């Protein structure tokens, strides 16, 4: 079910959608739903990242279970930006020699 806002006029929670407008059944008030802002992903230098970009790792990264770290300067192609499940790692990618991995935007720069 949709998560619709309460009526701004009477605070009724039973608001329903009728096309592009929202209607309150108690007071009859009609209003527009506010669009959620889209998240902007930025690299360590403040450049905006988008899906499909190529990034460069800016520092050596230790990887659990791997015998060697991901070296500074490693180029990662075709990244996918995701809403972080853990609140931190927001880049999904495949790193040559390591496989599928999640990275932070704060440790990469646009390449």
TrEMBL record:
Ranges where the Protein YjdM C-terminal domain occurs: 42-110
One Pfam family matching this protein: Zn_Ribbon_YjdM
Gene3D superfamilies reported for this sequence: 2.20.25.10, SH3 Domains
Family statement: Belongs to the YjdM family.
Domain Protein YjdM N-terminal: start-end pairs: 4-32
Protein name according to UniProt: Alkylphosphonate utilization protein
PANTHER family in alphabetical order: PROTEIN YJDM (PTHR30305:SF3), PROTEIN YJDM-RELATED (PTHR30305)
